[in-house]
Amino acid sequence: MVELVALSPLDVSQFLEVTWTEYRESLREAGFSDREAELNIERNKSQILDGDYPKPNHHFLDIRHEGASIGTLWLASQDDQAPGQWFGYEFTIQPEFRGRGLGRATMVAAENYVATQGGTSIGLNVFGPNAIARSLYESMGYEIQNIGMKKTLS
Questions:
Q1: Using one digit for the tens of pLDDT, what is the confidence trace for 73-84?
Q2: I want to staple 74 with a disulfide (CB 3.0 to 4.6 A). Which of 78, 83, 89, 140 is the partner?
Q3: Which residues in the chain come in under a pLDDT of 50?
């Protein structure tokens, strides 16, 4: 039903450009100040990128359904920190393909992909306001590891 295909280096570059912009907005929506968002992004870039390119343990995958590109998946092995552990940085299904069970199918495909690479677990982060994603992950057996909370004082 869903196939995962490696993105070309050019597609990875374009994907990351969009991803950093969307991530900045998600951080702001979650209550981060502009400065906090920028510092978070710079910290992440320093951990993920080797110059302008992702480190080799990062896997950028085109999500395909019936021959069409329907989204993008970004996974990374965390073997340098914890053998077998992987992290899902980004998982996006294009809006016109949502609500058809393709998100669930993609997560199953991601789990199979990680297992074939020797992975034994997948961690991920989901922002509090994203109830649909949280519901999907919880229904698939993903467990909450921590919850960050913040109150803005006026």
A1: 999 999 888 899
A2: 89
A3: none
